[in-house]
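Input/output pair, single chain:
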Amino acid sequence: MADGRPVFNSSAALSRLGGDVRLFKDLIGFLLEDAPALLSKLREAVDRGNAAQVARAAHSLKGLVVNFDAHAAAGAAQELESKGLAGELGGAAADVDVLATHVAELERQLRDYLARD
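Output:
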């Protein structure tokens, strides 16, 4: 993360996309556009104690980050999705903070990727 290591794997992602760089860039755009709103929905759902909405928002966010092989972010989203599905939101606010940190670093590195190209 902040130590300079990549938090996503562009080679693996591009391989799954058949080398389609344009599609990869479109996926980056979707993440950059949608992730902030999903994180906001996730925080609101945790604050309201709405486990079903936590599960849905976390699942949607997980779907965005897995496109980039962003394992830390995907794992954090999965943890929240599981808590939401189980209706057990203990510690979920802290989990959202962890997820938000992973997503912010992913966004930063994806922006850097776009700037290099």
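The chain has a mean pLDDT of 94. The two ends are 21 Å apart (CA to CA).
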